């Protein structure tokens, strides 16, 4: 296997790798905390959670196989040359494993916290949904491991839900900030390796990683626009709201509020 030409570039590679992975790992926490604080999952797409688990499971199998399996590594070298480096680091294995644990926590929250008309309403519906998602997850697992656009499927579902509700309330913007940082860090990390080796083979040899980062960054920009521009303006005109993160409908007409006060 090829070796690093510069120790400083190797250090930068490792630092950027762990920064991106830590950001991606921490990106799961804001949503968990928001759900717990609101005691509700209103605004969070169940399909988004299910497909995210499918993507992370597939990504874990993909990275762990390439990182630990000598047979797969030999196949990689046969295709790209024995002077190349394996384009997967230990941090790439840690990230999806950690994400699956956090997704399990969100799945428990889905069962026990409040839902709305945007999602299954009864506990029986949720149990049925989760069972079906497990079956679908198993059937898509190996397909997803070879298809980096699984991220595209999960992200567009949440973006469409935000568009349908005309709101991002219930979907944490904190996870998007961290996800965006992780995506940029990943592309920077792979670029550092390419510059050191004088070859861009690592991008093609692990095509799922850069495509995952690019797709995530693209949708993160959409979420930023939805949260800070498209629906933030509407939220700034709200005259009254019981709780900034409440699941109750927003009352936007001040005359309506005055009418309530008069009749009471």
What does this protein look like?
This protein has 264 residues and is mostly helical. Helices cover 73% and strands 0% of the residues. It is built from 12 helices and no strands.
How is this structure best summarized?
The protein is built from twelve helices and no strands. Helices cover 73% and strands 0% of the residues.
Strand content: under 5%
Report Rg. Answer: 22 Å
Model regions low in confidence, pLDDT < 50 over at least 5 residues: 120-125, 138-146, 238-264
Number of H/I helices? 12
> How many runs of DSSP E, i.e. beta strands?
0
Span between termini: 78 Å
Number of domains: 2
Structural class: mainly alpha
Helicity, in percent? Answer: over 70%
Biggest sheet, in brief?
none
Q: How confident is the prediction overall: mean pLDDT?
A: 77
Could you state the order of secondary-structure elements as H and E? HHHHHHHHHHHH
**What best-fitting shape do the alpha-carbon axes yield?**
elongated
């Amino acid at each position: 296997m090829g070796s690093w030409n510069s120790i400083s570039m190797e250090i930068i590679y490792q630092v950027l790798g762990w920064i991106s992975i830590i950001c991606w790992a921490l990106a799961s926490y804001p949503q968990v905390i928001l759900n717990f604080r609101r005691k509700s999952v209103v605004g969070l797409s169940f399909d988004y959670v299910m497909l995210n688990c499918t993507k992370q499971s597939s990504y874990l199998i993909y990275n762990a196989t390439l990182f630990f399996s000598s047979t797969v590594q030999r196949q990689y070298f046969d295709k790209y040359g024995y002077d190349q480096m394996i384009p997967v680091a230990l941090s790439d294995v840690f990230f999806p494993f950690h994400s699956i644990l956090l997704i399990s926590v969100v799945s428990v929250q889905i069962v026990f916290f409040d839902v709305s008309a945007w999602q299954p309403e009864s506990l029986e519906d949720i149990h049925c949904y989760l069972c079906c998602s497990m079956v679908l997850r198993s059937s898509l697992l190996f397909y997803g491991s070879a298809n980096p656009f699984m991220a595209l499927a999960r992200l567009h579902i949440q973006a469409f839900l935000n568009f349908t509700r005309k709101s991002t309330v219930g979907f944490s913007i904190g996870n998007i900030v961290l996800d965006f940082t992780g995506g940029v860090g990943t592309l920077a990390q792979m670029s550092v390796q390419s510059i050191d080796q004088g070859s861009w083979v690592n991008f093609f040899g692990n095509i799922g990683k850069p495509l995952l980062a690019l797709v995530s960054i693209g949708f993160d920009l959409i979420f930023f626009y939805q949260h800070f521009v498209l629906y933030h303006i509407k939220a700034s005109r709200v005259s009254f709201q019981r709780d900034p993160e409440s699941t109750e409908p927003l009352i936007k007409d001040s005359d309506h509020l005055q009418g309530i006060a008069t009749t009471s």
